[in-house]
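Limitations
The structure tokens in this dataset are predictions for the assembled complex, not deposited experimental models. Users should treat interface geometry with appropriate caution, especially where small molecules or nucleic acid strands are included. An illustrative entry is reproduced here so readers can see what is and is not provided.
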Amino acid sequence: MSLLGIIWSMIAAACGMLGLTQAFLWWHNRKLIEFPISMLMAFSAMAIPLLEMNLVFSADAAHHDRLILWMNLAVATVLVSIVWSLRAILPTTRRWAAVLITALWIVGICVNFLLPGNLTFSEVLAVEPYMTPWGEQYFIAKGTINPWKWTADITVLLIPLYAIDGAWRARKTSSFRQSRAIVWGIVLFVLIAGTQAILLDTGHYQTPYTISLAFFFVILSFTWVLAKEAVRAGKLDEQIARTLRETERLMRINMMGEVAATLAHEINQPLSAILGNAQAAEKFLARQDPDLDEIREILADIVRDDKRARDIITNLRRMLKGDSSEDQKADLESVTREVLAFMERQLAQNAISAQLHAEKNLPRVCGGPVAIQQVLLNLILNAEHAIIEANATKRVIEVRVSKKKGGCEVQVSDSGPGIAEEIREKLFEPFVTTKKLSLGMGLTVCRRIIENQGGHLTIENQTKGGACFRAWLPACTL
Amino acid sequence: MFSGLATGVHAVTETVFIIDNDHSVRRSLSRLLRSEGIRNECFESAQAYEDRDLHNGVGCVLLDINMPGMSGIELQARLLERGHNLPVVFLTGHGDVSSSVTALKRGALDYLTKPVDEADLLRAVRHALKLHRRVLADARVRNAIRARIDALTPREREVMLQLITGMPNKLVADRLQIATKTAKVHRAHVMQKMGMRSVAELVHACHLAGIEPGAEFDR
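Predicted assembly:
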């Protein structure tokens, strides 16, 4: 195989590889538009060396005409992709310039396909043979230059200007540092390739077409920058995910602290009663003629209080069970009931009544029961604090569980003062809080937990006053 | 010491008032006190106790801090406003440090952490009752002395005020611009009506009644 053939094949293969790389990056980050555009760029650029290869080995003028036709389309696609891809990476580039370059190429492509000949030559007159320094024969077409060719030529000047201008305007921002490799690549290689093409086409200078080689470097620079970005973003995502996981764990510990305080208070009561009763019994028994009826009563009381303590523990255990299990679907109603049962006494202590309204036959929802409990516990504690802090006269927390849009929604509304509009949406951001002694992470973690299950958590103020949190979770189809 | 002044208060009227919202806790505390022969009454809320007539015998209050509705601390404040002088012993759960401090600052006698050991409970209750017994006894003595002072004539009262500064009759007479003889008569009446045998006793009695040497009588 000839050296030219090897070079072009390799460039085509490399462009294809870069295209696949872009496709891969796009697959993993479908939100970024620069990936599909760069992918299109790389695949179009792959066509160029293949066309060039056919071109230089063909002595047929009609064949040259047809190949140049398609080559122009490929070049147009690559250049327009470069323009828009750069714009996605470097937003300081001028939109009108991108539009202008695109428009020029649209005109050029129309001329290319609709008028006789192609955009380069309106008529290919001859194909002349040349020799490479190492003695390989190649052919170059000669013909009448198309009067519309300037539309393409001018873009070769415009693109580096467009890139330099965009980079200059972004010179102090991070997007410049990220994209300067691309900008230099575009400037150098578009200039080199463009000059070469112009010189060749006007017949001043003879080499085989190597526009593809220049494009290859531009595409390489795009892939390099985008891949670097993707890796960095991936690392950042991982870091954020790790931090959030850690926060979630800390919040759970914090919540467990609250749960433990409630639990300690709850269990303290029966424990005090049992201790008092047992010591009283000892005293009664130490008497000359112990009153056995009294002792019997005391024992019955001790048994009752012991059962009460056991029920508290059972409640807690039921609430926490599944902590280690892989259960990923939950009965929202029973989860809610358990949390309310656990909170009941504490709420009663603060003279707050909790009302649960649940629809019948609710579908199971996605999400681990423990995670959902954590969210509910958090929301109910928030509601409780809101009422206590405002010292509200009406002290009610309403919890509603209902079917909604292919899932279930649980609403927690309180009779507190509601939430000031200006911080209402910000409330879910980290470190935003209305409470004096709060880190402001509770709701951030709650929203994350719910969104991890494909649901959403929102807050609104009720017209009758008080805040209302809505957590929606999709029905579990498993 | 003072003939007929110190009167014993009947132990029968000694009552501990247990205020706790938890039925079981109330029952067990009541039983424990009963097993030691201490009379007690139970209330399920601060409100219920506040609605009761003020107790006028010896007593003390065992008050749970953490209650729905009116808390123990609130009840304490309201009772103080009403001039309630029963000693208050608070019962708290673990970790109620700040409210315990508030309670003590407002004059609570003691606070006990639940679950309370019988020995601690009885010690605190007995101490509170003893304290109140003394407070009441002192009040009785004071009232008795005041009643006797009330029985004095204005002139006799003036003479008494001079006497408790330790002045001899002659000086008293000079101060009040009366004859020494007259002063002596007044002095004899004061000592008799007050039931005192010596000036020292009189000084002490006046001190108990809140009258110090050099004071002015305004009644």
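Some entries come with short summary sentences. For this one: The first strand of chain A starts at residue 121 and ends at 131.
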